[in-house]
Amino acid sequence: MTDSKSSSDLQVEKAKADAEAKPKPGSLIMSGMRSTHHLHIGNYFGALKQWLDLQADYRGIYGVMNWHAMTSRYKEPHDVARFAREIYAEWIAWGLDHEKNVIFVQSEVPELLELNMYFLMLTPMSWAERVPTWKDAEEDAKATDTHNLGRFMYPVLQAADIAIYRGTHVPIGHDQIAHLELSREIIRRFNFLYGGNLPEPKPIFSETPTLLGADGRKMSKSYNNAFHLTQEADDVVKALRAMPTDPARVRRTDPGEPTKCPVYSYHKLFSSTEDLAWVEPGCRTAGIGCGDCKMRLAGNLNAKMAEPREKKKELLANPDQLDAIIGDGCARARKAAGETLKSVREWTGFAGTW
């Protein structure tokens, strides 16, 4: 019997094979985040932490993606702009080096939109229609009045985001394989049609822990249950006090099971080995109460956030300093994008002046 594999299975296998080879010296890491809301802990473990690790060995170019944010928040452009500035400050506060890396705001690099036009023309609609995130979110998009062309062609703009800087590697979770493979296909077709040499980006996979929100459901901005990345200390304590625990612990004297408790999932990320050795038997024997457990976690969370929280406040309180950093990052991004666009125009015959 012939062993048949689905298209998605083959994509996963291909992406894994591409990711097996460690990026070589000189590789360029490209990634970004949408400026739709405050960053939360999930954004840290899902992306920012990996960027901080990668910057020790590789150059990186990281974008605050405000055009992407507009696909779902086009009615609140001022909020998108405000969050873009806040996120930029947040990244620096957590240690993303704005001198070693290029950190930019997407809308400040107009060269991107010209490359996006080429990509839009050569991308069949069927390619965009097959992206799982579009199919899964289409009904929600209709219900929230975000069933628009920008959201539909979001993956094409992503391909342009990567290609305009000649990104060679993109950190992704396993749920983003289809998006990256579409970017690779678009870039491959561009190179085939016009004789270009834009790199086909390879994945760097990250293992993202599953995080529950303050209400015990999946952490999500739409649920308003996320712990912001530099939340005020009192707000952290308040949110943790309200967080559900193991339902078996109805009374203080009832034993519990840490692995069934949302609070314990945070302990595993923010607490020391010694704290875990205190939490686990304490919970199972009812030697500690849920309040004790939560307050130990609150202390650890706030200790982790303390320095970035103050650094972010300092940056936002000194707009001239932050403007200079953002301006420098965007100028460096435009320089790199301009060099790519010059080649793109030559390959396509659009380089003439008249």
Summarize the biggest pleated sheet: 3 strands, parallel
Radius of gyration, whole Å = 22 Å
**How big a fraction of the residues is strand?**
5-15%
Structural class: mainly alpha
Say how many strands there are.
5
Task: Tell me the distance between the termini.
Answer: 62 Å
Helix content class = 55-70%
Give helix and strand order, one letter per element, not per position.
HEHEHHEHHHHHEHEHHHHH
Integer count of domains: 2
Model regions low in confidence, pLDDT < 50 over at least 5 residues: none
Q: Largest beta sheet: what is the strand line-up?
A: 1-2-3
Descriptive key words:
two-stranded parallel sheet, 5 strands, mainly alpha, Tyrosyl-Transfer RNA Synthetase, 354 residues, three-stranded parallel sheet, Rossmann fold, 15 helices, single chain
In short:
The chain has 354 residues and is mainly α.
What does the secondary structure layout of this molecule look like, with pairings?
Elements: H1 7-20, E1 28-34, H2 41-54, E2 59-65, H3 66-73, H4 77-93, E3 102-105, H5 111-122, H6 125-129, H7 132-143, H8 149-152, H9 154-163, E4 169-172, H10 177-194, E5 202-205, H11 233-242, H12 262-270, H13 273-284, H14 290-317, H15 319-348
Parallel strand pairs: 1-2, 2-3, 4-5
